[in-house]
């Protein structure tokens, strides 16, 4: 027996609703041709709304969209990549990193079949792979944007609920000056320069510091520039160099120019590989060298991103106006910036000394007793 004949049918305008199993399907005509597609919902009211939208588009002569049950995750992922590329609303490299994990799990799935339970199963799988809840939430956010875009383009009938996971408190890692110096001197000369840029200005190592080209360094003006689109927030950035950093960058530029003469070609990168089989190519990573340097310096487990937190903390301690500091580091919102403004035990101890009056100087905080007596 025909499955559709076992359920009641309901007409809506010149179209038709009917049940297959527990899911409502619709039928409508355009240019003399009949179209059938699933609404992906068990709710008759939602199904009628979808049918109404199809009829309006059919009457206006708008092109008929692919049947919803044929739209796959791969179709939606392609549309999202195109959306990011056209609008520039997300760093493409970072988006691809998130999408790579989603692709492996959802590839070839019908988009309408992805629901809350599937997102939870995905999260469980990623946890088993060692991913943090924070990373999983970022990936689910990309999946949610993908589904919303498909919904806006009428390629998805309803938006599933994607629940975020509980995240641990933001990482508190940062470098004291002596620890940073100990790690830096265990790196090669060029990497010493790279980590110093991140330590001073809080720039992201992979996407901002190592991606710098010679043209972005102006020693005469004493500036270092990031192009619009090169940063995570999509905005350009210019910083004026400290005397020490200007000297280090001049030495690095000298190393690159020497390599150009050796290879007899122009090298755009400011931080290319100076030896080995990738000589002259931009550095892609130095995680192993970093981990080894941290281990030998006795600060195992420190991350290069901790340099970014350190820069924010140092600016706060130096009383750099927050609006200026955010321009230097590239933080777009103060809420995110504040998460990086780490307070260390040494900071708390220094505050206690100031309160006790043990820190001489015009700017010291008066002892509590003195302040109370003056009221």
Descriptive terms for the model:
single chain; 375 residues; alpha+beta; Double Stranded RNA Binding Domain; hpI Integrase, Chain A; 4 domains; four-stranded antiparallel β-sheet; 15 helices; 7 strands; 48% helix
Helix content: 40-55%
> From the 3D coordinates, which CATH architecture of the largest domain would you assign?
Orthogonal Bundle
Kindly report how far apart the N and C termini lie: 92 Å
Number of domain modules = 4
Strand-residue fraction?
5-15%
Shape, please? elongated
Q: Would you identify the CATH H-level superfamily of the largest domain?
A: Intergrase catalytic core
Largest sheet: 4 strands, antiparallel
For the CA atoms, what is the radius of gyration? 29 Å
What do we call the CATH topology of the largest domain?
Answer: hpI Integrase, Chain A
The CATH C-level name of the largest domain is: Mainly Alpha
Question: What is the strand tally?
Answer: 7
Number of separate helices? 15
* Low-pLDDT windows of residues: 1-6, 360-375
Q: Which strands sit side by side, in order, in the main sheet? A: 1-2-3-4
Structural class: alpha+beta
Q: Give the topology string: H per helix, E per strand.
A: EEEEHHHHHHHHEEEHHHHHHH
Mean pLDDT: 82
């Amino acid at each position: 027996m025909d499955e559709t004949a076992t359920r009641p049918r309901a007409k809506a305008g010149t179209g038709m609703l009917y049940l297959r199993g527990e899911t409502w399907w619709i039928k409508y005509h355009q240019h003399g041709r009949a179209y059938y597609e699933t609404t992906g919902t068990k709710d008759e009211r939602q199904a009628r709304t979808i049918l109404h939208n199809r009829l309006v588009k059919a009457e206006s002569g708008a092109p008929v969209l692919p049947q919803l049950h044929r739209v796959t995750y791969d179709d939606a992922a392609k549309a999202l990549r195109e959306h990011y590329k056209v609008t520039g609303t997300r760093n493409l490299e970072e988006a691809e990193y998130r999408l790579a994990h989603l692709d492996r799990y959802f590839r070839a799935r019908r988009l309408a079949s992805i629901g809350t339970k599937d997102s939870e199963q995905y999260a469980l799988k990623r946890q088993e792979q060692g991913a943090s809840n924070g990373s999983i939430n970022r990936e689910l956010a990309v999946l949610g944007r993908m589904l919303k875009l498909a919904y806006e383009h009428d390629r998805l009938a309803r938006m599933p609920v994607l629940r975020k996971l509980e995240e641990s408190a933001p990482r508190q890692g940062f470098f004291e000056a002596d620890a940073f110096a100990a790690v830096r001197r265990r790196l090669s000369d060029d990497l010493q320069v790279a980590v110093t840029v991140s330590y001073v200005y809080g720039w992201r190592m992979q996407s901002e510091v190592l991606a710098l080209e010679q043209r972005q360094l102006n020693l005469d003006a004493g500036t270092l520039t990031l192009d619009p689109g090169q940063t995570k927030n999509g905005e350009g950035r210019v910083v004026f160099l400290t005397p020490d950093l200007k000297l280090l960058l001049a030495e690095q530029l000298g190393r690159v120019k020497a390599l150009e003469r050796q290879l007899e070609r122009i090298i755009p990168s400011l931080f290319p590989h100076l030896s080995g089989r990738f000589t002259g190519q931009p550095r892609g990573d130095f995680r192993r060298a970093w981990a080894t340097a941290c281990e030998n310096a006795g600060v195992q487990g420190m991350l290069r991103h901790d340099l970014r937190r350190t820069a924010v903390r140092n600016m706060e301690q130096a009383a750099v106006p927050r609006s200026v500091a955010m321009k230097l580091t590239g933080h777009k919102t103060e809420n995110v910036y504040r998460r990086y403004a780490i307070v260390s035990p040494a900071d708390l101890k220094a505050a206690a000394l100031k309160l006790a009056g043990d820190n001489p100087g015009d700017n010291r905080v008066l002892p509590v007793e003195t302040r109370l007596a003056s009221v």
